[in-house]
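To the team - magnesium ion complex, inputs and output below.
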Amino acid sequence: MERTNERTSEQASEQANGYVSVNRLTKRYGGFTAVDSLSFTVGKGEIFGFLGPNGAGKTTTLSVISTLLDFDHGEVEIAGFKLPKDEFEVKALLGLVPQEIALYQNLTAAENVALFASLYGLRGAKLKAAVEEALEFVGLADERKKRAGKMSGGMRRRLNIACGIAHKPELIIMDEPTVGVDAWSRDHILGSIRTLRNRGATIIYTSHYMPEVQSIADRIAIIDKGRLAAIGTERELLEYVTDRKAILIGVDGQAAQCAEIAVSDIRMLAGVKRVRYNAEKGEIGLDVDLALKSISPILKTLMDRGVTIRTIEEEAPNLETTFLALTGSELSADGESAAPAAGGRAGRGA
Ligand SMILES: Nc1ncnc2c1ncn2[C@@H]1O[C@H](COP(=O)(O)OP(=O)(O)O)[C@@H](O)[C@H]1O
Ligand SMILES: [Mg+2]
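Output:
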């Protein structure tokens, strides 16, 4: 859209407060508070990762920013425009890639992209060029005539992205764009996100897939039950949780029952925060106090219970353990769901 002169002073505040600025945002569904006084800012040109277990309030927050949902309290400002007042200005500068794939099954890839891009006012040759470029961009140029309903999951995800970005928005909001896709599509999508950022777009992005967020996000917000648990660069987040370290003990897979018993004994030991036993891998994963001086009691318990220890590894804290420490939830590797941790505070109760 055309920039007006009015924006110059607003652009200054954009620099100071962030390109996207969310201040004490609260959103309720009836009596249930889905987003609870959430504050964060996103700098212009950033890839901003939004992490949280299922039900954390990610989609709700992104829906508010995308002007699809009203809110109860707080301030939301994008590129100097305030919601809900400047809804149309905000709509005009953003592109949304929704979590639920939104495509017309009976339309072809090109027709789907054209339909969405035309909603942003593109017409004629400009529209045609934008459609081609977007399809090319997501690796679907050769499939332009294929109907969405006939596409694989990965292709549909990529087409969903093409529909959200064809009009070249300066703010791109992607809600779990890689859920359920094949490795090739995932890599392609991640590469596309980097390219979009390099072209100057600002990207807000949610994913359950930790390595993905680690690899592309400049800054990450971890949210849980509608509240901000932590925000910062990957390094800052890792340093934020320094009270525990992970230890991985490889054990004899034959003695699963002994290991089970040993694990429940270990759980009682001082300094042990969390124990997981994976019988299939023959692995016991432990989170222990960083201050724990010796792991001898742990090893002794295993030996007393007749468990053969094969290997011992200490893991440096990573985003996964940080996430776990902050939310009590584990992010699943396949990106489909988050499983509550034993004794954790996971779930979405009010
Ligand atoms: N339309 C709705 N009506 C009632 N509750 C909702 C609605 N949409 C979402 N919720 C609830 O709000 C919470 C946050 O949902 P959501 O923003 O979709 O989380 P996320 O995207 O992090 O998984 C969840 O507990 C969800 O069940
Ligand atoms: Mg969601």
